[in-house]
Amino acid sequence: MSDIIFELIKVAVMLAILMVTRYMIPWFRDKIGTEQLLVIEKWTKSAVMMAQQVLGDANGVDKKTYVTEFLKKLLTAKNISISDEQLDVLIEAAVKQLKTEENGRIVSKIMVPDEITMIKE
Question: Read out DSSP for 28-81?
């Protein structure tokens, strides 16, 4: 009787290990990958904003080169690997987001005086 219970416990442990390796490990990898991507996106946005401040009136190619080199050094130091194509996409997305935010601020600044004059009337 104890041999049967021992064999059932062994089978249950093997099934538990199988389930962990099949489902939990890929989930952890996805979770860590998603968090790393969020961190990389944050760094990319910061680097784009830094290039805008530091390089000011420089052309877009120089700014992009500056951001690319900065991020490659940073990611290498953090031991994170990402392809040049992925980095390029993240930089372009950060630039577009920055321009959209700037345009939104300009529109809201233009709208404020009109709203003030309407309130005074």
Answer: HHHHHHHHHHHHHHHHHHHHHHHHHHHHTTS-HHHHHHHHHHHHHHHHHHTT--
